[in-house]
Every structure is written in C-alpha cells, then in structure tokens.
Amino acid sequence: MVRLGDLLVSLPFGLFLLLSGAFITIPGANAWSKEGHEMTCLIAQAFLKPEASEAISHLLPPNVKGNLSALCTWPDQIRHWYKYRWTSPLHFIDTPDDACTFDYSRDCHDPKGVKDMCVAGAIKNFTSQLSHYKEGTSDRRYNMTEALLFLSHFMGDVHQPMHVGFTTDEGGNTINLRWFKHKSNLHHVWDREIILTALSDYYDKDVSLLLQDIERNITDGMWADDDTSWEHCNDLSHCVNNWAKESIQVACKWGYEGVQSGMTLSDEYFDSRMPFVMKRIAQGGIRLVMILNQVFGDDHEEGFATAT
Ligand SMILES: [Zn+2]
After folding, report:
1. Most exposed: 150, 173, 206, 227, by fewest CB within 10 Å?
2. Is residue 122 part of a domain?
3. What is the DSSP-derived secondary structure letter of residue 88?
4. Domain for residue 307, yes or no?
5. What is the rounded average pLDDT of the residues 48-72?
C-alpha cells in the first residue's frame, strides 16, 4: 500500500499554486474544502489496484504525474463557467426540510425538476461512462478524463453530510453564524471550518499528519472492522442511495441539531462533530477506490449493475 503521507509529499506544490491562481474561486460554493476533496482522493489513491492506477495515470494530464488528488477540486473550479454551468446542481441534493430522509425519485433533480441532476445521479452517470473505458480508444463516447474527475469529486461531495441537506436553507448555506470568532455559515463549517480547526489544533497545520491518522484508523484503528462493509457494493444505485441517506442522517443528528442562525459554534460543537467529518472523508475515499478498482480492474465482469 502506498503511504498517504508519501503521496501528499510527492504532490508538486507549484501545481497547487498554479491551479489556485488560475481559476476564480467562488465564495460560499457548495463543496468539501480543497483539503476535504484532496484527502478523499489521496485515501482512494493509496488503495488503488495496479491496473486501476495505470488507467488513471493514462487519463490524467501528464503534469500531475498520476496524482488524482491534484485535480479533485477541478469540478468546483469550473462549475460556474458557461460550458459547465449544467454541472452546478450535481454537487448536492436538496431534501424536504426536516424530513431527514433521501428518496431518489423524490429528491434527485435540479431546481427546474430535471431528473437525475443531483450528486447521486451524477455518481451513477459518471461511473457508467467510465465503465466503457476498457472498450478501447477509438470509439469512446465520453470524455473519460472529465468523467474521472467528476466522479472523484462527487464521491467526496455525497459524503459531506450538509451536501444532502434541507431545501430552504440550501444545505445550511443560509444559516449564518460564528465559528469561534469569525463569521461563517453552517454549510461552510462542515465543508472546511472543522477540518481547518482540526489541522491547526492537532496536526500542526500539516494535512499529511491528519491523513496518517485517518489511514491508521482505516487499517488498524477504530474503523478497521468497518471498512470492508463500507466498500461492499453490488448494485451501485442502491449503494449511492445509502450513502446519501447516511449523509442526511448525520446532517440532521449532528449538523443541524441545536444550531440556529446567529449563534456561535465553538469547542463543544467542534469536539463532537470532528470524528464524523473524518469518518465521512475516510468513507468517501474507500468507496471511491472501490468504484475505480471495479471499473478499471481486471475483474470487470463482476462490475456493478448500472444503467448504460
Ligand atoms: Zn462539489
């Protein structure tokens, strides 16, 4: 297994500067933070089978040297570009206020009601596209590189609990509050604030140290008995629905619970919620690599039942 810390260290720092400088960042965008997506993809990369790793290296632009995590935030960076505006509703799911459930046929649509236009639909669609990768190079119907980047990003988003939130408050985006001393909102607390506070309080602001902790918990720590069930999946539609349900349940029980606009969230909220953020990042990574190993792996005949 590749050590997560090694992957992170091997990431060309200049590339990050280049990427972050090359795109306009939209404040308040719906997304795990850069760190959240990066960690999800680094976890996935650490568990890739050789044939999946080779396919991914082939699909990524040469300058990232096979490092998927370098481009896992790309779908956030382009979602407001004219060409990609259609992808904007694919980052989240709005569920009925206070229902605390996810129902694909009821909830997976864009604001105009177009069906399948939500993060759960997107994961199914891009997995289905990638499952054609092995059919050869000449007649590919889809842009496989984009499909890989979208899938990798959306597997992060579907695990961010507030990305499967309530409709009226836009997944917590309109619940303005303070995170310790600065202004924030509930959505952003789960996207980024908890991760940044964890990094600065416990990991000397070093993402690779946080990743090592997550890695330890996956392989022989508190999640060691769970991670095989996390990645168990025969029918992708069924699995994606479950992942979205897990998110709205965490959002209800731990995200929204006890929170109102205008309040200040601090130590008590941080301490009790941080383990959920770390677990969701780990689950996103483990399930992403499960899909990638299936669509690119040699045992492809055992692949998912997905619509083509
Ligand atoms: Zn996103």
Report:
1. 206
2. yes
3. G
4. no
5. 95
Q: Which of 281, 285, 265, 254 is nearest to 197 (CA)?
A: 265
d(CA 232, CA 242): 12
pLDDT (tens digit per residue) in 125-144: 999 999 999 887 655 668 99
Summarised one tens digit per residue, pLDDT across range 63-117 is 999 999 999 999 999 999 999 999 999 999 999 999 999 999 999 999 999 999 9
Identify whether the C-beta of residue 195 lies closer than 8 Å to the C-beta of residue 279. no
Q: Which domain holds residue 180?
A: 4-302
Total domain count, the chain:
1
Across 67-131, where does the E strand assignment appear?
93-95
Q: Does 308 reside within a domain?
A: no
Q: How far is the CA of 126 from the centre of ligand 1 (A)?
A: 14
Q: Please tell me the pTM assigned to this model.
A: 0.88
CA 296 / ligand 1 centre spacing (Å): 24
Q: Is residue 99 domain-resident?
A: yes
Identify residues whose C-beta is under 5 A from ligand 1, the ion.
31, 76, 91, 157
Q: DSSP secondary structure string, 251-293?
A: IIIIIITT--TT-EE-HHHHHHHHHHHHHHHHHHHHHHHHHHH
